[in-house]
Design goal:
Layout lengths: L31 H14 L9 H9 L1 E2 L2 E6 L17 E3 L10 E5 L26 E5 H7 L12 E3 L2 E3 L11 H15 L22 H9 L4 H11 L12 H4 L2 H7 L22 E6 L6 E6 L7 E8 L2 E6 L3 E4 L7 E10 L11 E4 L13 E7 L5 E6 L6 E2 L1 E2 L2 E8 L8 E4 L5 E2 L4 E5 L12 E2 L11 E6 L2 E6 L12 E5 L15 E5 L15 H5 L3 E4 L7 E6 L5 E8 L4 E6 L4 E3 L6 E9 L2 E9 L1
Parallel strand pairs: 22-23
Antiparallel strand pairs: 1-2, 2-3, 4-5, 6-7, 8-9, 9-12, 10-11, 10-13, 13-14, 15-16, 15-26, 16-22, 17-21, 18-19, 19-20, 19-24, 24-25, 26-27, 28-29, 29-32, 30-31, 30-33, 33-34
Helix pairs in contact: 1-4, 1-8, 4-5, 5-8
Family: Belongs to the EndA/NucM nuclease family.
Organism: Kordia periserrulae
Protein name: Putative secreted protein (Por secretion system target)
Length: 619
């Protein structure tokens, strides 16, 4: 499990050169079905303590402890630090907030209970397989409900639904990679409980040629997402039967992901024991790394191909020393970046045996300031019409400085609606393939029965535009809420028989509905639909002319100098893991950073109506 937002430092991380003694009585020279069955015998015979379902609460608080906050547990399928107002995507949660209510965490059966045949609780709800600790991971209650018993399938970006299926999430958009965790859990459940938990009952994809029960997608996930420190910690805890809520056995595919390759084939996964690899030579370091095509939110990175004694298969790309994405080509577009911010990029080459080169030299790239026509940080709702009958429409504006592809592989936008105060989103609208919004332009979605404002509609969708004045509507980017109309779960009427137009001074989305950002017009007003104006104040333009010094700093204070001494109203500093470390309002243009450790930080300033971000180095 690779993470962008989380730096795992507090848990045991194993670097192995030989297998654990746990496997001393297993013939590890076997392959295929024989190795599968030998490992099955081992995990079955050592599963000496049958935990009750209630004991999983206690075990999870220990094995899944957040290494950056001992009061929290990590939540499977989560990726966000809790600052966006959407609790369902949180990566971490207070240990004691466990239960079945909104905002709680509960116990996710990664191999869903009802998908097993017979179901996991067919014999008893107070013991395994229903309460096998290797299968149960902390999860947000609502996100657990969204997954339900959906089968796993291929996808991209953060966790979420893919049609009728479920994608656990990866790190391509700055989130958390859960693919390996899921794959290794399903493999364990298969060898522990046999055909009752066959992988083809819980995942869809190509059938494995060695074992018809295996799905090759799981082998791909196991190879793509290396073992995390959390997985190691879970294994170490549960083998030690002297721990009160340990069950005595281990998950072999966590100890060595290459075991899956030895059994079922596919892309070679990491050999943590170093006993299966015949090729130990790493590829050459990628050279001539270059950046190009900088925008306010993305930078293209390219490099010359590496060489190897066998074959180079892929490259790992790092942004500010943190893993970003694995690609098979020699170029990538890094997205989701902050405007006016300098990033450094490195690349490492990998071969078919998993040998990895050293990272390349660092190349720096700086994103452009916010859009030329307005400087906005992202798309946002610019108009809302809740008119008579079915005269209903939504408008989305783009003032980012670049044309936006609404279905770009790295940045997929959707709309979601919650009706009548429902605490969860009911329906999702996906933009048609090829849908684009040019800089300074808008996109209009309307009800097919719209009888007014003709000629300005880009798309019709009766589900998303069947709203009433008390229905919350969210604009999402990679399944992360970025802008909202109304308040999720509130049900209060905020705009009935009304047309709302975003004020020209607003240049960014807002995850909290703020009535003061909107001008109100009578029902069925068409004057503004199909176009939008954004006018930045003088103060906003002046925000582009500021200086932070000294930077790098080794002192106790940094100072902010703005054009015409415009006041900085708020400052927030984030560490490289995305955690907020300083938040200060009513700033007198100086900030006390004496408490920061050495390292790199992101400094976010609120100057007038504009938020600007700059990199800060503490020496």
């Amino acid at each position: 499990m690779k993470r962008i937002l989380l730096l795992v430092t507090g848990l045991l991380s194993l670097t192995l050169t030989a297998q654990q003694s746990y496997y001393n009585d297993v013939n590890l020279t076997l392959t295929g079905i024989q190795l599968r069955d030998a490992l099955a015998t081992k995990v079955i015979n050592t599963h000496s303590n049958s935990l009750s379902y209630s004991e999983i609460w206690t075990a999870s608080m220990i094995t899944d402890e957040d290494p950056n906050n001992a009061n929290n547990v990590l939540l499977i399928y989560g990726w966000e630090n809790g600052s966006d107002g959407d609790v369902t995507n949180d990566l971490s949660r207070d240990k004691m907030s466990n239960g079945g209510n909104v905002g709680d965490w509960n116990r996710e059966h990664t191999f869903a209970n009802s998908l097993a045949n017979p179901s996991l609780d067919a014999s008893s709800t107070n013991g395994p397989p229903y309460s096998d600790a290797h299968n149960l991971r902390p999860s947000d209650v609502q996100r657990n409900g969204q997954r339900g018993n959906r089968l796993f399938a291929t996808g991209s970006g953060n966790s979420g639904t893919v049609g009728a299926y479920w994608y656990p999430g990866d790190a391509t958009t700055g989130g958390t990679d859960w693919r390996g965790d899921v794959a290794r859990i399903i493999m364990y459940m298969y060898i522990r409980y046999g055909n009752q938990c066959a992988p083809n009952l819980v995942a869809v994809g190509t059938q494995n040629s060695v074992d018809a029960n295996m799905i090759d997608l799981l082998l791909e996930w196991n190879a793509a997402d290396p073992v995390s420190a959390i997985e190691d910690a879970r294994n170490t805890y549960h083998e030690d039967i002297f721990n009160a809520t340990a069950q005595g056995n281990r998950n072999p595919f966590i100890d060595n992901p290459r075991l899956a390759t030895q059994i079922w084939g596919g892309t070679p996964a990491e050999d943590r024991w170093g006993i299966y690899s015949t090729d130990t030579q790493a590829p050459t370091v990628p050279t001539n790394v270059m950046v190009s095509n900088e925008t306010s939110s993305s930078i293209d990175v390219s490099w010359d191909a590496s060489t190897d004694n066998v074959a180079v298969t892929e490259y790992d790309v790092y942004v500010d020393a943190t893993f970003y994405q694995t690609v098979a080509t020699t170029s990538i577009t890094v997205t989701g970046l902050s405007a006016s911010t300098t990033y450094n990029f490195t690349v490492a080459a990998k071969d078919a045996e998993g040998n990895t080169s050293a990272q390349s030299g660092i190349v720096n790239g700086t994103t452009l300031a916010g859009g030329g026509t307005g400087g906005g940080s992202d798309l946002y709702f610019s108009e809302y019409m809740e008119g008579s009958s079915l005269n209903k429409a939504l408008e989305i504006a783009n003032f980012t400085g670049s044309t936006i592809d609404l279905n770009d592989a790295g940045n997929v936008y959707t709309l979601k609606i919650s009706t009548n105060g429902n605490a969860m989103w009911n329906s999702t609208y996906s933009f048609p393939m090829g849908a684009m919004i040019a800089d300074g332009d808008v996109y209009v979605i309307a009800n097919s029965s719209l009888a007014v404002c003709t000629g300005v509609v880009d798309d019709s969708n009766n589900t998303i535009t069947g709203f009433n004045g008390n229905d919350a509507i969210g604009l999402f980017k990679n399944d992360v809420l970025i802008d909202i109309l109304g308040t999720l779960g509130d049900g209060t009427t905020y705009a009935e028989n009304t047309t709302l137009v975003r004020k020209p001074s607003v240049n960014a989305p807002n995850t909290t509905y703020t009535a003061s950002e909107w001008d109100t017009f009578p029902s069925n007003t068409c004057d503004n639909l199909g176009m939008h104006t954004q006018t930045l104040s003088t103060t906003t333009f002046e925000a582009e002319n500021f200086q932070v010094y000294p930077n790098p700093t080794n002192g106790g204070f940094i100072y902010i100098n703005t054009k015409n001494n415009v006041e900085v109203s708020a400052v927030t500093i984030f560490d490289i893991a995305g955690r907020q470390v300083i938040s200060q309002n009513n700033v007198s243009n100086q900030i006390n950073v004496s408490g920061l450790q050495q390292g790199m930080y992101l400094l976010q300033l609120q100057i007038g109506n504009q938020t600007v971000t700059k990199k800060l180095i503490k020496q």
